[in-house]
Protein backbone atom coordinates (compact mmCIF):
# COMPACT_ATOMS: atom_id res chain seq x y z
CA UNK A 1 0.00 0.00 0.00
CA UNK A 2 1.33 3.44 -0.94
CA UNK A 3 0.94 6.17 1.67
CA UNK A 4 0.62 9.90 0.97
CA UNK A 5 2.83 12.33 2.92
CA UNK A 6 2.32 16.10 3.02
CA UNK A 7 5.48 18.16 3.58
CA UNK A 8 4.57 21.62 4.91
CA UNK A 9 7.70 23.77 5.26
CA UNK A 10 8.65 27.28 4.12
CA UNK A 11 12.17 26.09 3.23
CA UNK A 12 12.10 25.12 -0.46
CA UNK A 13 15.36 23.15 -0.39
CA UNK A 14 14.29 21.15 2.65
CA UNK A 15 10.95 20.31 1.00
CA UNK A 16 12.83 18.94 -1.99
CA UNK A 17 15.27 16.90 0.11
CA UNK A 18 12.53 15.39 2.24
CA UNK A 19 10.35 14.69 -0.80
CA UNK A 20 13.21 12.90 -2.59
CA UNK A 21 13.97 10.72 0.46
CA UNK A 22 10.32 9.78 0.95
CA UNK A 23 9.68 9.13 -2.75
CA UNK A 24 12.70 6.82 -2.85
CA UNK A 25 11.24 4.93 0.12
CA UNK A 26 7.96 4.41 -1.76
CA UNK A 27 5.80 7.24 -0.43
CA UNK A 28 3.73 9.67 -2.47
CA UNK A 29 4.50 13.25 -1.45
CA UNK A 30 2.62 16.54 -1.61
CA UNK A 31 4.30 19.84 -0.77
CA UNK A 32 3.07 23.09 0.83
CA UNK A 33 5.08 26.23 1.60
CA UNK A 34 2.71 28.09 3.95
CA UNK A 35 -0.44 27.72 6.06
CA UNK A 36 -2.85 28.55 3.23
CA UNK A 37 -1.39 25.90 0.91
CA UNK A 38 -1.29 23.40 3.76
CA UNK A 39 -5.03 23.67 4.39
CA UNK A 40 -5.74 23.45 0.66
CA UNK A 41 -3.63 20.30 0.34
CA UNK A 42 -5.43 18.66 3.26
CA UNK A 43 -8.80 19.51 1.73
CA UNK A 44 -7.89 18.30 -1.77
CA UNK A 45 -5.83 15.19 -0.99
CA UNK A 46 -6.18 12.09 1.13
CA UNK A 47 -3.14 12.59 3.34
CA UNK A 48 -1.93 9.83 5.67
CA UNK A 49 1.11 11.46 7.28
CA UNK A 50 2.10 15.09 7.53
CA UNK A 51 5.46 16.75 8.22
CA UNK A 52 4.55 20.14 9.65
CA UNK A 53 7.09 22.90 10.28
CA UNK A 54 6.32 25.10 13.28
CA UNK A 55 7.33 28.30 11.45
CA UNK A 56 5.52 28.41 8.11
CA UNK A 57 6.00 32.11 7.44
CA UNK A 58 2.39 33.20 7.50
CA UNK A 59 1.23 31.13 10.48
CA UNK A 60 2.40 29.16 13.52
CA UNK A 61 2.29 25.50 12.56
CA UNK A 62 1.05 24.47 15.99
CA UNK A 63 -1.98 26.71 15.56
CA UNK A 64 -2.85 24.84 12.35
CA UNK A 65 -3.11 21.43 13.98
CA UNK A 66 -6.69 21.82 15.22
CA UNK A 67 -7.91 22.91 11.76
CA UNK A 68 -6.01 20.07 10.09
CA UNK A 69 -7.52 17.48 12.43
CA UNK A 70 -11.02 18.82 11.86
CA UNK A 71 -10.57 18.26 8.11
CA UNK A 72 -8.74 14.92 8.41
CA UNK A 73 -9.11 13.32 11.87
CA UNK A 74 -6.89 10.31 11.03
CA UNK A 75 -3.83 12.14 9.70
CA UNK A 76 -0.63 11.54 11.70
CA UNK A 77 1.14 14.85 12.23
CA UNK A 78 4.90 14.96 12.76
CA UNK A 79 6.22 18.33 13.93
CA UNK A 80 9.56 19.51 12.48
CA UNK A 81 11.45 22.56 13.70
CA UNK A 82 14.90 24.05 13.85
CA UNK A 83 14.23 25.55 17.29
CA UNK A 84 13.45 22.58 19.46
CA UNK A 85 12.60 23.40 23.07
CA UNK A 86 10.97 21.47 25.88
CA UNK A 87 7.90 23.70 25.69
CA UNK A 88 7.59 23.15 21.93
CA UNK A 89 7.59 19.39 22.46
CA UNK A 90 4.98 19.73 25.19
CA UNK A 91 2.76 21.94 23.03
CA UNK A 92 3.03 19.47 20.14
CA UNK A 93 2.04 16.57 22.42
CA UNK A 94 -0.89 18.55 23.87
CA UNK A 95 -2.22 18.97 20.33
CA UNK A 96 -1.88 15.19 19.82
CA UNK A 97 0.89 15.38 17.24
CA UNK A 98 2.20 11.89 16.44
CA UNK A 99 5.89 12.74 16.61
CA UNK A 100 8.52 15.44 16.82
CA UNK A 101 11.73 15.99 14.81
CA UNK A 102 14.36 18.70 15.09
CA UNK A 103 16.54 20.06 12.28
CA UNK A 104 18.90 18.97 10.87
CA UNK A 105 16.73 15.93 10.21
CA UNK A 106 18.37 12.52 10.23
CA UNK A 107 17.18 10.52 7.20
CA UNK A 108 16.92 7.18 9.04
CA UNK A 109 15.08 8.74 11.95
CA UNK A 110 12.69 10.43 9.53
CA UNK A 111 11.89 7.26 7.60
CA UNK A 112 11.45 5.23 10.77
CA UNK A 113 9.03 7.75 12.28
CA UNK A 114 7.04 8.14 9.05
CA UNK A 115 6.77 4.36 8.70
CA UNK A 116 5.42 3.97 12.22
CA UNK A 117 3.01 6.87 11.73
CA UNK A 118 1.74 5.41 8.44
CA UNK A 119 1.19 1.99 10.06
CA UNK A 120 -0.78 3.59 12.89
CA UNK A 121 -2.96 5.46 10.40
CA UNK A 122 -3.60 2.25 8.47
CA UNK A 123 -4.73 0.43 11.61
CA UNK A 124 -6.95 3.37 12.54
CA UNK A 125 -8.69 3.28 9.16
CA UNK A 126 -9.19 -0.49 9.24
CA UNK A 127 -10.55 -0.54 12.76
CA UNK A 128 -12.93 2.40 12.35
CA UNK A 129 -14.30 1.35 8.97
CA UNK A 130 -17.95 0.41 9.23
CA UNK A 131 -18.20 1.17 12.96
CA UNK A 132 -20.12 3.83 14.80
CA UNK A 133 -19.10 5.56 17.99
CA UNK A 134 -21.16 5.00 21.09
CA UNK A 135 -21.07 8.23 23.05
CA UNK A 136 -23.56 7.09 25.70
CA UNK A 137 -21.81 7.14 29.08
CA UNK A 138 -23.50 5.76 32.18
CA UNK A 139 -23.20 8.67 34.58
CA UNK A 140 -23.81 6.30 37.49
CA UNK A 141 -20.54 4.48 36.83
CA UNK A 142 -22.36 1.18 36.26
CA UNK A 143 -20.61 -2.12 36.60
CA UNK A 144 -19.72 -3.69 33.28
CA UNK A 145 -19.66 -7.39 32.58
CA UNK A 146 -21.77 -10.06 30.89
CA UNK A 147 -19.72 -13.00 32.12
CA UNK A 148 -21.44 -15.75 34.15
CA UNK A 149 -19.40 -14.78 37.21
CA UNK A 150 -20.70 -11.20 37.10
CA UNK A 151 -24.29 -12.35 36.51
CA UNK A 152 -24.10 -14.14 39.86
CA UNK A 153 -22.79 -10.95 41.49
CA UNK A 154 -25.67 -8.90 40.04
CA UNK A 155 -28.21 -11.35 41.45
CA UNK A 156 -26.74 -11.13 44.94
CA UNK A 157 -26.59 -7.32 44.74
CA UNK A 158 -30.29 -7.25 43.85
CA UNK A 159 -31.24 -9.51 46.74
CA UNK A 160 -29.02 -7.66 49.21
CA UNK A 161 -30.39 -4.25 48.16
CA UNK A 162 -33.99 -4.97 49.18
CA UNK A 163 -32.96 -6.28 52.61
CA UNK A 164 -31.31 -4.37 55.41
CA UNK A 165 -28.81 -7.03 56.39
CA UNK A 166 -25.09 -6.53 56.87
CA UNK A 167 -23.03 -7.31 53.75
CA UNK A 168 -19.42 -8.48 53.50
CA UNK A 169 -17.82 -7.92 50.08
CA UNK A 170 -14.70 -9.98 49.41
CA UNK A 171 -12.34 -9.57 46.50
CA UNK A 172 -8.88 -8.55 45.42
CA UNK A 173 -7.84 -4.91 45.29
CA UNK A 174 -9.32 -3.14 42.28
CA UNK A 175 -12.26 -5.48 41.69
CA UNK A 176 -14.88 -2.81 42.44
CA UNK A 177 -15.91 -3.44 46.04
CA UNK A 178 -16.87 0.19 46.70
CA UNK A 179 -18.92 0.29 43.50
CA UNK A 180 -20.85 -2.80 44.64
CA UNK A 181 -21.51 -1.17 48.01
CA UNK A 182 -22.74 1.98 46.30
CA UNK A 183 -25.06 -0.02 44.02
CA UNK A 184 -26.54 -1.83 47.01
CA UNK A 185 -27.16 1.50 48.76
CA UNK A 186 -28.65 3.20 45.68
CA UNK A 187 -31.10 0.36 45.18
CA UNK A 188 -32.07 0.07 48.84
CA UNK A 189 -34.82 1.81 50.87
CA UNK A 190 -32.01 3.96 52.36
CA UNK A 191 -31.02 5.41 48.97
CA UNK A 192 -32.16 8.96 49.82
CA UNK A 193 -29.97 9.02 52.94
CA UNK A 194 -26.17 9.32 53.36
CA UNK A 195 -23.68 6.85 51.94
CA UNK A 196 -20.47 7.26 53.96
CA UNK A 197 -17.21 5.62 52.87
CA UNK A 198 -14.40 4.84 55.32
CA UNK A 199 -11.11 3.36 54.13
CA UNK A 200 -9.91 1.63 57.29
CA UNK A 201 -6.44 1.09 55.84
CA UNK A 202 -5.89 4.80 55.17
CA UNK A 203 -6.52 6.06 58.72
CA UNK A 204 -3.88 5.75 61.41
CA UNK A 205 -4.74 3.37 64.31
CA UNK A 206 -4.65 6.30 66.76
CA UNK A 207 -7.38 8.16 64.83
CA UNK A 208 -9.64 5.38 63.54
CA UNK A 209 -11.74 5.11 66.72
CA UNK A 210 -12.46 8.85 66.80
CA UNK A 211 -13.11 8.83 63.05
CA UNK A 212 -15.73 6.08 63.33
CA UNK A 213 -17.42 6.91 66.64
CA UNK A 214 -16.61 10.59 67.19
CA UNK A 215 -15.28 12.22 70.34
CA UNK A 216 -16.27 14.72 72.99
CA UNK A 217 -14.46 17.91 73.89
CA UNK A 218 -11.37 17.22 75.95
CA UNK A 219 -11.16 13.54 74.99
CA UNK A 220 -7.54 14.13 74.02
CA UNK A 221 -5.14 17.06 73.53
CA UNK A 222 -6.50 18.35 70.20
CA UNK A 223 -10.16 17.59 70.92
CA UNK A 224 -11.28 21.23 71.24
CA UNK A 225 -14.95 20.48 70.54
CA UNK A 226 -17.41 17.61 70.22
CA UNK A 227 -17.21 15.87 66.87
CA UNK A 228 -19.55 13.44 65.19
CA UNK A 229 -18.01 10.26 63.85
CA UNK A 230 -18.76 8.53 60.56
CA UNK A 231 -21.48 6.35 62.09
CA UNK A 232 -23.48 9.37 63.23
CA UNK A 233 -22.89 11.06 59.88
CA UNK A 234 -24.34 7.96 58.20
CA UNK A 235 -27.42 7.82 60.44
CA UNK A 236 -30.46 6.49 58.52
CA UNK A 237 -28.15 5.63 55.64
CA UNK A 238 -25.29 3.25 54.87
CA UNK A 239 -21.69 3.15 56.04
CA UNK A 240 -19.12 1.34 53.89
CA UNK A 241 -16.11 0.06 55.83
CA UNK A 242 -13.47 -0.70 53.22
CA UNK A 243 -10.55 -2.97 54.25
CA UNK A 244 -12.25 -3.82 57.53
CA UNK A 245 -9.54 -6.42 58.17
CA UNK A 246 -7.13 -3.58 58.99
CA UNK A 247 -9.00 -2.61 62.18
CA UNK A 248 -7.30 -3.29 65.48
CA UNK A 249 -8.81 -5.81 67.91
CA UNK A 250 -9.96 -2.98 70.23
CA UNK A 251 -11.84 -1.21 67.43
CA UNK A 252 -13.26 -4.53 66.26
CA UNK A 253 -14.83 -4.98 69.69
CA UNK A 254 -16.50 -1.56 69.45
CA UNK A 255 -17.72 -2.32 65.95
CA UNK A 256 -19.21 -5.57 67.23
CA UNK A 257 -21.14 -3.56 69.83
CA UNK A 258 -22.57 -1.35 67.08
CA UNK A 259 -23.75 -4.43 65.19
CA UNK A 260 -25.29 -5.98 68.31
CA UNK A 261 -26.73 -2.97 70.12
CA UNK A 262 -27.02 -0.36 67.33
CA UNK A 263 -25.33 2.22 69.53
CA UNK A 264 -21.95 3.94 69.71
CA UNK A 265 -19.84 5.44 72.47
CA UNK A 266 -17.79 8.50 71.42
CA UNK A 267 -14.17 8.67 72.57
CA UNK A 268 -13.97 10.32 76.00
CA UNK A 269 -17.66 9.82 76.76
CA UNK A 270 -19.47 7.43 79.09
CA UNK A 271 -22.78 7.92 77.29
CA UNK A 272 -24.00 5.90 74.34
CA UNK A 273 -25.87 7.17 71.30
CA UNK A 274 -28.25 5.17 69.17
CA UNK A 275 -27.55 4.93 65.42
CA UNK A 276 -29.66 3.53 62.62
CA UNK A 277 -27.05 2.53 60.08
CA UNK A 278 -26.67 -0.28 57.61
CA UNK A 279 -23.13 -1.65 57.54
CA UNK A 280 -21.44 -2.89 54.38
CA UNK A 281 -17.88 -4.08 54.92
CA UNK A 282 -15.21 -5.13 52.43
CA UNK A 283 -11.84 -6.81 52.53
CA UNK A 284 -9.15 -8.08 50.20
CA UNK A 285 -7.85 -10.39 52.92
CA UNK A 286 -8.87 -13.94 53.75
CA UNK A 287 -10.47 -13.18 57.09
CA UNK A 288 -10.56 -16.89 57.99
CA UNK A 289 -6.75 -16.78 57.99
CA UNK A 290 -6.78 -13.60 60.06
CA UNK A 291 -9.05 -15.34 62.60
CA UNK A 292 -6.52 -18.18 62.84
CA UNK A 293 -3.75 -15.60 63.30
CA UNK A 294 -5.78 -13.96 66.11
CA UNK A 295 -5.81 -10.63 64.26
CA UNK A 296 -9.56 -10.69 63.52
CA UNK A 297 -12.40 -11.63 65.84
CA UNK A 298 -14.45 -14.63 64.75
CA UNK A 299 -17.65 -13.25 66.34
CA UNK A 300 -17.30 -10.03 64.33
CA UNK A 301 -16.66 -12.02 61.16
CA UNK A 302 -19.92 -13.93 61.58
CA UNK A 303 -21.81 -10.71 62.29
CA UNK A 304 -20.45 -9.10 59.13
CA UNK A 305 -20.77 -12.13 56.88
CA UNK A 306 -24.58 -12.25 56.82
CA UNK A 307 -24.78 -11.59 53.08
CA UNK A 308 -21.43 -12.49 51.46
CA UNK A 309 -20.51 -11.24 48.00
CA UNK A 310 -17.35 -12.55 46.30
CA UNK A 311 -16.07 -10.45 43.41
CA UNK A 312 -14.12 -12.39 40.75
CA UNK A 313 -10.71 -11.04 39.70
CA UNK A 314 -10.53 -9.68 36.16
CA UNK A 315 -8.40 -12.60 34.96
CA UNK A 316 -11.35 -14.89 35.73
CA UNK A 317 -13.75 -12.89 33.54
CA UNK A 318 -11.60 -11.94 30.58
CA UNK A 319 -14.63 -11.83 28.29
CA UNK A 320 -15.64 -8.59 30.05
CA UNK A 321 -12.39 -6.77 29.25
CA UNK A 322 -13.41 -5.45 25.77
CA UNK A 323 -16.59 -3.94 27.26
CA UNK A 324 -14.60 -2.34 30.07
CA UNK A 325 -12.13 -0.88 27.56
CA UNK A 326 -15.02 0.61 25.61
CA UNK A 327 -16.51 2.09 28.79
CA UNK A 328 -13.24 3.70 29.87
CA UNK A 329 -12.33 5.12 26.45
CA UNK A 330 -15.81 6.64 26.20
CA UNK A 331 -15.71 7.99 29.74
CA UNK A 332 -12.29 9.59 29.35
CA UNK A 333 -13.16 11.05 25.96
CA UNK A 334 -16.03 12.86 27.64
CA UNK A 335 -13.84 13.84 30.61
CA UNK A 336 -11.04 15.22 28.41
CA UNK A 337 -13.54 16.66 25.89
CA UNK A 338 -11.92 14.89 22.94
CA UNK A 339 -13.36 12.55 20.28
CA UNK A 340 -13.48 8.93 21.38
CA UNK A 341 -10.26 7.19 20.34
CA UNK A 342 -10.35 3.71 18.81
CA UNK A 343 -8.33 0.70 19.88
CA UNK A 344 -6.89 -1.93 17.56
CA UNK A 345 -7.98 -5.56 17.66
CA UNK A 346 -4.40 -6.60 18.39
CA UNK A 347 -4.31 -4.29 21.40
CA UNK A 348 -7.62 -5.62 22.75
CA UNK A 349 -6.33 -9.18 22.35
CA UNK A 350 -3.13 -8.38 24.25
CA UNK A 351 -4.99 -6.56 27.02
CA UNK A 352 -7.43 -9.47 27.30
CA UNK A 353 -4.53 -11.91 27.72
CA UNK A 354 -2.85 -9.78 30.43
CA UNK A 355 -3.12 -11.00 34.03
CA UNK A 356 -4.30 -7.66 35.55
CA UNK A 357 -3.27 -8.30 39.14
CA UNK A 358 -4.59 -4.80 39.92
CA UNK A 359 -7.89 -5.84 38.30
CA UNK A 360 -10.39 -3.29 36.92
CA UNK A 361 -8.64 -0.37 38.62
CA UNK A 362 -5.35 -1.27 36.94
CA UNK A 363 -7.08 -1.56 33.56
CA UNK A 364 -8.78 1.81 34.05
CA UNK A 365 -5.49 3.50 34.93
CA UNK A 366 -3.74 1.84 31.98
CA UNK A 367 -6.40 3.16 29.58
CA UNK A 368 -6.16 6.64 31.08
CA UNK A 369 -2.35 6.67 30.81
CA UNK A 370 -2.48 5.37 27.23
CA UNK A 371 -4.96 8.07 26.18
CA UNK A 372 -2.71 10.76 27.63
CA UNK A 373 0.31 9.41 25.75
CA UNK A 374 -1.48 8.61 22.47
CA UNK A 375 -0.90 11.16 19.74
CA UNK A 376 -2.95 9.45 17.03
CA UNK A 377 -6.53 8.29 16.70
CA UNK A 378 -5.94 4.67 17.73
CA UNK A 379 -4.61 2.97 20.85
CA UNK A 380 -1.89 0.46 19.92
CA UNK A 381 0.15 -2.09 21.92
CA UNK A 382 3.00 0.43 22.14
CA UNK A 383 0.80 2.68 24.27
CA UNK A 384 0.59 -0.11 26.88
CA UNK A 385 4.25 -1.15 26.78
CA UNK A 386 4.75 -0.46 30.49
CA UNK A 387 1.93 -2.88 31.35
CA UNK A 388 2.34 -5.53 28.67
CA UNK A 389 6.12 -5.79 29.01
CA UNK A 390 6.04 -6.12 32.81
CA UNK A 391 6.94 -9.59 34.12
CA UNK A 392 4.15 -11.41 35.93
CA UNK A 393 4.48 -13.10 39.31
CA UNK A 394 2.77 -16.46 39.05
CA UNK A 395 1.24 -17.23 42.44
CA UNK A 396 0.48 -20.81 41.36
CA UNK A 397 4.06 -21.81 40.61
CA UNK A 398 4.80 -25.25 42.06
CA UNK A 399 7.83 -26.27 40.06
CA UNK A 400 9.92 -29.20 41.25
CA UNK A 401 13.13 -27.67 39.92
CA UNK A 402 12.43 -24.47 41.83
CA UNK A 403 11.83 -26.46 45.02
CA UNK A 404 15.14 -28.26 44.59
CA UNK A 405 16.98 -25.00 43.98
CA UNK A 406 15.45 -23.45 47.11
CA UNK A 407 16.34 -26.51 49.20
CA UNK A 408 19.90 -26.44 47.90
CA UNK A 409 20.23 -22.72 48.66
CA UNK A 410 18.78 -23.21 52.13
CA UNK A 411 21.15 -26.09 52.86
CA UNK A 412 24.13 -23.96 51.77
CA UNK A 413 23.07 -21.04 53.97
CA UNK A 414 22.43 -23.22 57.02
CA UNK A 415 25.76 -25.03 56.61
CA UNK A 416 27.65 -21.74 56.41
CA UNK A 417 25.98 -20.43 59.55
CA UNK A 418 26.55 -23.67 61.47
CA UNK A 419 30.23 -23.63 60.58
CA UNK A 420 30.65 -20.01 61.65
CA UNK A 421 31.32 -18.96 65.22
CA UNK A 422 27.82 -17.79 66.07
CA UNK A 423 25.21 -18.25 68.76
CA UNK A 424 23.17 -21.14 67.34
CA UNK A 425 20.23 -19.98 69.42
CA UNK A 426 19.72 -17.27 66.81
CA UNK A 427 19.84 -19.61 63.81
CA UNK A 428 16.11 -19.36 63.05
CA UNK A 429 16.18 -15.56 63.09
CA UNK A 430 19.23 -15.40 60.86
CA UNK A 431 17.84 -17.86 58.30
CA UNK A 432 14.50 -16.03 58.28
CA UNK A 433 16.29 -12.74 57.66
CA UNK A 434 18.30 -14.23 54.80
CA UNK A 435 15.17 -15.25 52.89
CA UNK A 436 12.35 -13.10 54.26
CA UNK A 437 13.80 -9.63 53.71
CA UNK A 438 14.62 -10.04 49.97
CA UNK A 439 11.27 -11.79 49.48
CA UNK A 440 9.41 -8.78 50.92
CA UNK A 441 11.53 -6.36 48.87
CA UNK A 442 10.84 -8.23 45.61
CA UNK A 443 7.07 -8.45 46.20
CA UNK A 444 6.80 -4.80 47.31
CA UNK A 445 8.68 -3.68 44.22
CA UNK A 446 6.25 -5.71 42.11
CA UNK A 447 3.22 -4.12 43.80
CA UNK A 448 4.71 -0.59 43.62
CA UNK A 449 4.77 -0.41 47.42
CA UNK A 450 1.13 -1.46 47.92
CA UNK A 451 1.28 -3.34 51.23
CA UNK A 452 -2.29 -4.64 50.99
CA UNK A 453 -1.58 -6.25 47.63
CA UNK A 454 1.81 -7.52 48.84
CA UNK A 455 0.25 -9.17 51.91
CA UNK A 456 -2.35 -10.79 49.65
CA UNK A 457 0.34 -12.24 47.36
CA UNK A 458 2.40 -13.43 50.35
CA UNK A 459 -0.63 -14.91 52.08
CA UNK A 460 -0.02 -13.09 55.37
CA UNK A 461 -1.91 -10.47 57.33
CA UNK A 462 -1.09 -6.85 56.43
CA UNK A 463 -0.40 -5.98 60.06
CA UNK A 464 2.11 -8.84 60.18
CA UNK A 465 3.76 -7.55 57.01
CA UNK A 466 3.95 -3.99 58.36
CA UNK A 467 5.58 -5.23 61.55
CA UNK A 468 8.19 -7.24 59.63
CA UNK A 469 8.97 -4.28 57.36
CA UNK A 470 9.78 -2.22 60.43
CA UNK A 471 12.07 -4.98 61.71
CA UNK A 472 13.99 -5.03 58.41
CA UNK A 473 13.80 -1.24 57.99
CA UNK A 474 12.21 -1.64 54.55
CA UNK A 475 10.65 1.62 53.42
Structural class: alpha/beta
Net shape: elongated
What topology, given as strand order, has the largest sheet?
2-1-3-4-5
Q: Give the CATH class of the largest domain.
A: Alpha Beta
C-alpha-based Rg, rounded: 30 Å
Spans of at least 5 consecutive residues with low confidence: 130-141, 392-399
**Count of structural domains:** 4
Tell me the number of helical segments per DSSP (H or I, 4 or more residues long). 20
The CATH topology of the largest domain comes to Rossmann fold
Residue fraction in strands? 5-15%
* Largest sheet descriptor: 5 strands, parallel
Fraction of residues in H or I helices:
40-55%
CATH architecture of the largest domain: 3-Layer(aba) Sandwich
Number of strands: 14
The CATH superfamily of the largest domain bears the name: P-loop containing nucleotide triphosphate hydrolases
For the terminal residues, how far apart are their CA atoms? Answer: 54 Å
* Rounded mean pLDDT score: 83
Task: Describe how the helices and strands are arranged.
Blueprint: E1 4-8, H1 12-24, E2 28-32, H2 35-44, E3 49-53, H3 61-71, E4 76-81, H4 86-94, E5 99-102, H5 107-128, H6 148-162, E6 167-170, H7 177-186, E7 195-199, H8 205-213, H9 230-233, E8 238-242, H10 249-261, E9 263-264, E10 273-274, E11 278-283, H11 287-292, H12 298-304, E12 307-310, H13 321-336, E13 342-343, H14 345-353, H15 359-373, E14 378-379, H16 385-388, H17 400-419, H18 427-446, H19 451-458, H20 462-472
Parallel strand pairs: 1-2, 1-3, 3-4, 4-5, 6-11, 6-12, 7-8, 8-11, 13-14
Antiparallel strand pairs: 9-10
Helix pairs in contact: 2-3, 6-7, 10-12, 13-15, 18-19, 19-20
